[in-house]
Design brief:
The protein is of the alpha/beta class. It has a seven-stranded mixed β-sheet with strand order 2-1-3-4-5-6-7, with helices on both faces. It has helices at residues 10-21, 41-46, 62-74, 89-100, 117-120, 130-135, 137-143, 159-187, 194-200, 210-221, 237-247, 253-265, 271-284; strands at 2-6, 25-29, 53-56, 80-83, 105-112, 123-127, 151-155. The chain is elongated.
Length: 294
């Protein structure tokens, strides 16, 4: 299958490679000419055969809106736009309505996998009309992990990004729990090998997970996380999850507390946030701040 891909950063670039490895034709565009296959969005559209599919992997908000507005002018009826970034689900509804006026389909895809997706595949949560989702099935099958799981048509437009938002909210709470346990172990005199305690949990325990594996990776690189500042950013999806919980009267005490802990990290050099910063760097390549810089 042929597809255009806009945004060739840490995830978009790896997605292009994974799709090509699966035999698909990918025309990529990025504002960095060293990464781009074409010189402009117009060139990308012109390089594709109708009906065209263009997958957008740029930051949420104004950058995504700008690309979709431009594609609305360039694409034709029966073409499809996929937003695979971390857009808010309410933006999906707006984009779908804008594009439908021109006969252009819209699909929202929540994508999880971070910098490991090229090797392991990406979990995909997709929203949109069945006609457009089914057309893209070969692309989803190439991107997802091998085996029966890792892809779901979650519902109508917005459902994919809503599901990904909840996924990220759960991720916040899980990382917070590992971070709190790590800080407590580091605080007592009787435990003198915290890293190996974490490693011992990787097999046979009820709390084993990929996040735990990544925590061990981080501790192997910096046993006491002494080179990190206890400061962790949030992508925005944790906030949206809490806002959606309030709107729907759903109690989310663990996720809400984990979000507030990140806010607290910006006031002090929090030991727990060293672990969360390390985990975000491990799975997503997110930037960390060094203790020396602080």
């Amino acid at each position: 299958m042929q597809i255009g891909l806009v945004g060739l950063g840490k995830m978009g670039g790896n997605m292009r490679e994974r799709l090509r490895n699966a035999g698909h034709t990918v025309v990529g565009y990025d504002t960095n000419p060293e990464k781009s296959d074409v010189a402009s969005l117009a060139d990308l559209v012109n390089a594709l055969d109708a009906p065209r599919t263009v997958w957008v992997m740029v930051p949420a908000g104004d950058p995504t809106q700008h690309v979709i507005d431009r594609l609305a002018d360039l694409l034709k009826p029966y073409d499809t736009v996929v937003d695979g970034g971390n857009s808010r689900w309410t933006d999906d509804e707006k984009h779908a309505e804008e594009l439908s006026k021109r006969g252009i389909g819209f699909v929202d895809a929540g994508v999880s996998g971070g910098v490991w997706g090229l090797k392991n595949g990406y979990a995909l949560m997709v929203g949109g009309e069945k006609e457009y989702v089914d057309r893209l099935r070969p692309i989803f099958e190439a991107l997802k992990p091998e085996g029966p799981y890792g892809y779901v048509h979650a519902g109508k437009v917005g459902a994919g990004h809503f599901a990904k938002m909840v996924h990220n909210g759960i991720e916040y709470a899980m990382m917070q729990a590992y971070a709190e346990g790590w800080e407590l172990l580091e605080a007592v005199d009787s435990v003198d090998n915290v890293r190996e305690v974490f490693r011992s949990w990787q097999e046979g325990t009820v709390i084993r997970s990929w996040l735990l594996d990544l925590a061990v990776n981080a501790l192997d690189e910096d046993e006491h996380l002494e080179n990190l500042r206890g400061y962790a950013q949030d992508s925005g999806e944790g906030r949206w999850t809490v806002e959606a919980a309030i709107d729907n009267s759903v109690p989310l005490p663990a996720i809400t507390a984990s979000l507030f802990s990140r806010f607290a990290s910006r006031q002090d050099d929090s030991p727990q946030m060293k672990m969360i910063a390390a985990l975000r760097n491990q799975f997503g390549g997110h930037a960390v701040e060094s203790a020396k810089k602080a």
